[in-house]
């Protein structure tokens, strides 16, 4: 496995662990759907950190993993808040008759 593939795999695993950790610390009941949803969301938002290599191509893998962790946490929170607001507006429109 190439070095960039190892870094990408590490980022994806770290994002998944962040998503799972956020789920376990929350007050919501743990369901299979929530478990996999948070894992996928954390992985996806963490891999966005790979885009930083476009601007700084010689960035060390440790810095990339640190950025991925930060983006994984911030990204999950931002996306969840946006989805909750969006769901509230959609539901208000549906039940408003």
Shape: elongated
Strand tally, please?
A: 0
Compressed to H and E, one letter per element, the order equals HHHH
Radius of gyration: 16 Å
Characterization of this structure:
With 97 residues, the chain is mainly alpha-helical. The protein has four helices and no strands. It has helices at residues 3-25, 32-47, 52-55, 61-95. Helix 2 (32-47) crosses helix 4. The protein is elongated, with a radius of gyration of 16 Å. The N and C termini lie far apart (58 Å). The model has no long low-confidence stretch (mean pLDDT 79).
Q: Which structural traits does this protein have?
A:
single chain, 97 residues, mainly alpha, 4 helices
Characterize this entry briefly.
With 97 residues, this protein is mostly helical.
Q: Topology, pairings included?
A:
Blueprint: H1 3-25, H2 32-47, H3 52-55, H4 61-95
Helix pairs in contact: 1-2, 1-4, 2-4
């Amino acid at each position: 496995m190439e070095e960039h593939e190892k870094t990408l795999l590490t980022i994806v695993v770290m994002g998944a662990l962040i998503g799972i950790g956020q789920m376990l610390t929350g007050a919501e009941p743990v369901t299979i759907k929530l478990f996999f949803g948070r894992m996928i969301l954390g992985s996806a938002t963490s891999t966005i950190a790979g885009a930083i290599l476009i601007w700084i191509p010689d960035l060390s893998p440790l810095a990339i993993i640190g950025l991925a962790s930060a983006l994984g946490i911030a990204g999950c929170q931002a996306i969840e808040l946006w989805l909750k607001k969006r769901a509230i507006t959609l539901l208000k429109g549906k039940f408003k008759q």
